[in-house]
């Protein structure tokens, strides 16, 4: 029983953290039709920024600054690596994303000297609590609520503000939106800003649970979050969140079974089955090819 | 008529160039110091050239965006290794599982000795390709219906699943679990030795070049055949291609299987280069590396992939290595130089290529086209002709 | 124009490829006189500086660097040579290892030290074997490294020995009946040790493997708790070990954790700091074994900030550092015994080399493995952030 609860708890909290990353993937894909492979590494970079900031600043100042810097990083990446390729074929942009991911990882290796960095303890989040006889960190409990709150805020933003409307228009039809006077570059930058912001929040939650950061820390959560986004139907925010929780839960359940060797493989198998049965994911919109 | 004659001459020139290159490699290998880094780079470059060309066949010529190349290389590497480890060494290689479930070795089946080695290695490499192709066929049944990005992710997923299966403990007697397979014939086994075991004639760089050249040659022939034209038609416009009577499913599956076949052969050769086969090596980042090579060389240019793979390997493994060591010029310490700086510089170079040389080194042209247009430009005739056109 | 440019670029690069190839075989033959005027002998350092074994590799290199500072010259055949360490980063991965090994071979080193991590040593081994260059494994404990490779030697104990030691310890100290083993999926070192542990352990063993780059270990530890095991055996690399130990600390885990030599690192120790984690590791060296070495290297670490960072930010001495230190001196002994810097002569002399190092006396058996019958078991003194010697285990 206790075992089951602790599995469930860690599954839900992991799912929530994946959800925050998955939203970043899904929003960028919705507008640019680009798999932003560097997103997982932005998440890792947010963790490293926090490590270095907290070494010299009090936590209260470090957290907002970390979020700010991560947002800036996301913005700069978009402007430097994706904007020049706007008219290029989709594959070039995707490869540029792989290049950015490669660069961020190598840069992290260089700066940390390849040594694992320890994430600082954040007040409240790191506190231990006991639920139904299972000891866990506060962050486990906070994560799902925070995720739900952020998602509601985000859907409000998208459905009820001007920039939100512009984003929806851009994701529906890129060129027409441009013709309607929407400043497409601003919309895209804004998308990246939101994606990086959520990744920064996600990294604070994630690394509080798993405090050691190495240059490759972002790749696995990034990949899983991406799978979650595809699973839920890429381009759809509720889909990404539901997908992330499902992936997080199934991952922890598999790991606790005798088949833990296949925890990654199972995630992908699930993805392939979904893609084959319903190629646009759970909540994805149907697209038709125009000749 | 004229066209045909011209292309025939082009073929002969190309063949001549390849033969000259092979001879050059053989001569270099036997005249220069064998420990030089050059040969390591050439070996790895040849292997990567083959794999990059196979990926290019899929991504560049058929327009199928696959990220599963490392998975097919893994299949090839394991097939090759499992079939060629000498029976006597099996006990020690599979030490955790008390010997191997596969108790024969192809080179020995072919009678051992030099002939057995050549035939056995060739057969094992071909089988390595076949295994990869068969698995590709199976995977292709569901995933080839998917469109661009989804296909990329599904193939990436399959590569990861294949890797997990090969690391599975229960298959240990065949795959050796997490442990590396080793002691199989490598490129160095082809060096000719005299009775005292001293190397008299080196072929360890020549062999991968020859294998890669033959495989890439077959791919080029394929691309220039009707099948190749069908692939290109699919790349340009699927709907239009279908309307013209090209069977999409058949041609996509064919391209996928052929590409995987050569990736499998490349995987076997990679095992020969690395002296061991271990599932851990064939990760997604390996696929990304190969993809970057294809992009740097130019999507849709086989010769571009070949040149880029040598440049890529040489730059990452050799030329930039000095960036990793702290250097003093007199008493002045050169800033930034320490472990990891090499890869930072390298990734910046890659970003520059991706952003500013979008079409890669060659675009979608082959070396022959470039040479021809260069020749025309130099002789000045080309311009007039173009003007007339 | 662009095409012409691209072609020109290609030509330049191909030419420089050839030029580099041509020039790379010249530098070593002249013996490369050093600043002091002595001829130079090069020792290759084949270690990971990046990747998940990077921290361990760096600590091992510290031992060599310190030894090199202490004894920068060696008398070979009546001439005094300056020793130069030549580094090649094998990146902790088996696909980078052969090229890193080839890089050392091309730099004309007399012999090679390394590596930390068994997989890379196995991947690089055949390259050294082919080039006729002897390599001394420092802390690569997998039996497969020296088996079938005449040119690989090693100065540490082997995994089957280490697993036996830990099994005995688990039985003696905790009378363990049920053990939980956790290792990285596809890592030869982890899986080999776990397999040997399982072979020697006469009780129930539950095995799990986590994929590379995992950072969520809570499921595994909860599983161990739920299964009510007596010990947890996790022979993983430092990057994972710190996370597992830190998690165990925050969970207030009361099951003892057993670790292999990789866990003997101050980074792991720091992760356990101030908690109730019971952490036991088997290792090569216990601080205090040679006070002279301890004091010397601590003084150096405190003076050199880069070295301090590479050691994980404090001056606790890792066993791998002591092993790196011993390996350097074994290399010097081999050079002296060979009476020449020629790799062939060094290789011929190595089997006969004996040396009394800080980690014990070193001699090689016919396989090229060190003859060792003792291992230290240390426990983390979490209150004082130090290692305490638990026991010295011997296996017949």
TrEMBL record, chain A:
Record-annotated membrane-spanning stretches: 6-27, 59-81, 93-118, 138-158, 187-206, 226-247, 259-277
Keyword field contains Cell membrane: yes
UniProt keyword Cell membrane present: yes
Keywords: Amino-acid transport, Cell inner membrane, Cell membrane, Membrane, Transmembrane, Transmembrane helix, Transport
Location(s) in or outside the cell: Cell membrane
Cited CDD domains: TM_PBP1_LivH_like (cd06582)
Membrane topology, from the record: Multi-pass membrane protein
InterPro entries reported for this sequence: ABC_transp_permease, BCAA_transport_permease
Major localization listed first in the record, in broad terms: membrane
Stated family: Belongs to the binding-protein-dependent transport system permease family. LivHM subfamily.
Official protein name in the record: Branched-chain amino acid ABC transporter permease
Automatic annotation (TrEMBL), chain B:
Membrane topology: Multi-pass membrane protein
Keyword check for Transport: no
Localization: Cell membrane
Keywords on record: Cell membrane, Membrane, Transmembrane, Transmembrane helix
Membrane-crossing residue ranges in chain numbering: 12-28, 48-81, 116-138, 150-168, 199-223, 254-274, 290-315, 336-357
Pfam families attached to this UniProt entry: BPD_transp_2
PANTHER family in the record: HIGH-AFFINITY BRANCHED-CHAIN AMINO ACID TRANSPORT PROTEIN BRAE, HIGH-AFFINITY BRANCHED-CHAIN AMINO ACID TRANSPORT SYSTEM PERMEASE
Stated name of the protein: Branched-chain amino acid ABC transporter permease
Native species: Oscillibacter valericigenes
TrEMBL record, chain C:
Mitochondrion listed as a keyword: no
InterPro entries: BCAA_transport (IPR051010), Leu-bd (IPR028081), Peripla_BP_I (IPR028082)
Leader peptide range in chain numbering: 1-18
Stretches assigned to the Leucine-binding protein domain: 41-376
Coiled-coil stretches: none
Keywords (A to Z) from UniProt: Signal
Matching PROSITE patterns: PROKAR_LIPOPROTEIN
Family under the similarity heading: Belongs to the leucine-binding protein family.
PANTHER family: LEUCINE-SPECIFIC-BINDING PROTEIN (PTHR30483), PERIPLASMIC BINDING PROTEIN OF ABC TRANSPORTER FOR NATURAL AMINO ACIDS (PTHR30483:SF6)
Protein name from the UniProt record: ABC transporter substrate-binding protein
Phylogenetic classification of the source organism: Bacteria, Bacillati, Bacillota, Clostridia, Eubacteriales
């Amino acid at each position: 029983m206790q075992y089951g609860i602790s599995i469930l708890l860690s599954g839900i909290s992991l799912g929530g953290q994946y959800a925050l990353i998955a939203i970043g993937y899904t929003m960028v894909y919705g507008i640019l039709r680009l798999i932003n492979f560097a997103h997982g590494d932005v998440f890792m970079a947010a963790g490293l920024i926090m490590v270095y900031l907290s070494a010299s600043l009090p936590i209260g100042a470090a957290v907002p600054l970390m979020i700010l810097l991560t947002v800036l990083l996301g913005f700069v990446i978009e402007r430097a690596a994706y904007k020049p390729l706007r008219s290029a074929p989709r594959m070039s942009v995707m490869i540029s994303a792989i290049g950015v991911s490669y660069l961020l990882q190598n840069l992290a290796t260089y700066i940390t000297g390849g040594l694992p960095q320890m994430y600082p303890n954040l007040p409240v989040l790191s506190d231990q609590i006991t639920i139904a006889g299972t000891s866990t960190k506060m962050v486990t409990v906070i994560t799902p609520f925070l995720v739900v709150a952020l998602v509601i805020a985000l859907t409000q933003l998208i459905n009820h503000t001007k920039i939100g409307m512009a984003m929806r228009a851009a994701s529906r039809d890129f060129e027409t939106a441009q013709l309607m006077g929407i400043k497409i570059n601003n919309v895209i930058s804004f998308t990246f800003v939101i994606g990086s912001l959520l990744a920064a929040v996600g990294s604070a939650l994630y690394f509080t649970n798993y405090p050691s950061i190495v240059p490759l820390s972002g790749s696995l959560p990034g990949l899983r979050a991406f799978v979650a986004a595809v699973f839920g139907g890429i381009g759809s925010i509720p889909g990404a969140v539901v997908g992330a929780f499902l992936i997080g839960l199934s991952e922890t359940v598999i790991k606790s079974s005798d088949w833990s060797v296949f925890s990654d493989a199972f995630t992908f198998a699930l993805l392939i089955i979904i893609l084959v049965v319903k190629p646009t994911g759970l909540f994805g919109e149907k697209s038709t090819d125009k000749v | 008529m004229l066209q045909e004659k011209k292309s025939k001459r082009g073929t002969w020139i190309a063949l001549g160039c390849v033969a000259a290159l092979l001879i050059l490699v053989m001569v270099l290998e036997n005249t220069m110091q064998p420990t030089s880094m050059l040969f390591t780079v050439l070996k790895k470059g040849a292997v990567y050239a083959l794999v990059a060309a196979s990926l290019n066949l899929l991504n560049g010529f058929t327009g199928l965006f696959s990220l599963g190349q490392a998975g097919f290389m893994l299949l090839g590497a394991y097939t090759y290794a499992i079939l060629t480890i000498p029976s006597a060494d099996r006990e020690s290689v599979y030490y955790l599982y008390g010997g191997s479930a596969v108790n024969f070795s192809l080179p020995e089946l072919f009678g051992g000795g030099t002939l057995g080695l050549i035939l056995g290695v060739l057969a094992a490499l071909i089988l390595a390709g076949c295994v990869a192709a068969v698995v590709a066929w199976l995977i292709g049944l569901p995933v080839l219906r998917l469109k661009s990005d989804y296909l990329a992710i599904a193939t990436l997923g399959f590569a990861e699943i294949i890797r997990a299966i090969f690391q599975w403990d229960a298959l240990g007697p065949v795959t050796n679990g997490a442990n590396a397979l080793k002691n199989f014939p490598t490129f160095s086994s082809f060096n000719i030795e005299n009775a005292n075991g001293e190397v008299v004639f080196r072929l360890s760089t020549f062999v991968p070049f020859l294998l890669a050249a033959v495989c890439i040659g077959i791919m080029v022939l394929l691309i220039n055949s009707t099948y190749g034209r069908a692939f290109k038609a699919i790349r340009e416009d699927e709907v239009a291609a279908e309307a013209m009577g090209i069977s999409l499913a058949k041609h996509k599956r064919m391209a996928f299987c052929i590409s995987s076949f050569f990736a499998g052969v490349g995987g076997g050769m990679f095992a020969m280069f690395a002296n061991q086969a271990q599932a851990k090596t064939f990760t997604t980042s390996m696929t990304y590396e190969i993809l970057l090579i294809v992009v740097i060389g130019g999507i849709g240019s086989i010769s571009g992939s070949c040149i880029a793979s040598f440049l890529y390997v040489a730059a990452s493994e050799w030329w930039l290595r000095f960036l990793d060591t702290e250097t003093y010029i007199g008493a002045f310490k050169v800033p930034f130089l320490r472990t990891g700086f090499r890869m930072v510089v390298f990734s910046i170079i890659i970003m520059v290529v991706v952003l500013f040389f979008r079409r890669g080194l060659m675009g979608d042209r082959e070396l022959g086209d470039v040479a021809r247009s260069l020749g025309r430009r130099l002789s000045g005739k080309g311009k007039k002709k173009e003007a007339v056109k | 124009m662009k095409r012409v440019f691209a072609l020109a670029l290609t030509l330049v690069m191909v030419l420089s490829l050839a030029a580099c190839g041509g020039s790379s075989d010249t530098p070593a033959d002249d013996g490369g006189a050093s600043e002091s005027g002595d001829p130079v002998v090069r020792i290759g350092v084949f270690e990971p500086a990046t990747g998940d074994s990077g921290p361990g590799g760096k600590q091992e290199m510290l031992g060599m660097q310190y030894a090199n500072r202490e004894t920068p010259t060696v008398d070979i055949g009546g001439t005094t040579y300056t020793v130069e360490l030549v580094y090649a980063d094998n990146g902790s991965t088996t696909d980078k290892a052969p090229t890193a090994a080839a890089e050392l071979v091309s730099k004309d080193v007399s012999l090679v030290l390394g590596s930390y991590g068994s997989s890379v040593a196995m991947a690089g081994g055949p390259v050294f074997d082919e080039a006729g260059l002897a390599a001394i494994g420092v802390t690569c404990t997998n039996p497969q490294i020296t088996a079938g490779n005449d040119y690989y030697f090693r100065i540490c104990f082997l995994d089957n020995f280490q697993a036996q030691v830990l099994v005995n310890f688990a039985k003696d100290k905790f009378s363990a009946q049920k053990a939980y083993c956790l290792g990285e999926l596809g890592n030869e070192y982890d899986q080999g040790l776990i397999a040997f542990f399982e072979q020697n352990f006469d009780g129930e063993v539950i095995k799990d493997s986590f994929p590379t780059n995992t950072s969520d270990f809570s499921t595994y530890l909860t599983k161990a708790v739920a299964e009510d095991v007596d010990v947890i055996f996790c022979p993983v690399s430092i990057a994972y070990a710190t996370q597992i130990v830190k998690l165990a600390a925050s969970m207030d885990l009361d099951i003892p954790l057993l670790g292999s030599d990789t866990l003997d690192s101050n980074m792991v120790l720091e992760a356990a700091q101030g908690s109730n984690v019971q952490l036991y590791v088997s290792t090569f060296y216990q601080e205090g074994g040679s006070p002279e070495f301890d004091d010397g290297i601590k003084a150096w670490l405190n003076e050199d900030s880069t070295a301090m960072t590479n050691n994980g930010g404090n001056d606790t001495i890792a066993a791998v550092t002591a092993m790196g230190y011993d390996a350097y001196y074994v290399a010097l002994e081999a050079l002296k015994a060979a009476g020449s810097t020629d790799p062939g002569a060094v290789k011929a002399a190595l089997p006969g080399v004996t040396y009394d190092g800080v980690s014990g006396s070193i001699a090689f058996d016919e396989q090229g493995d060190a003859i060792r019958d003792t291992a230290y078991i240390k426990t983390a003194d979490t209150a004082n952030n130090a290692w305490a010697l638990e026991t010295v285990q011997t296996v017949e």
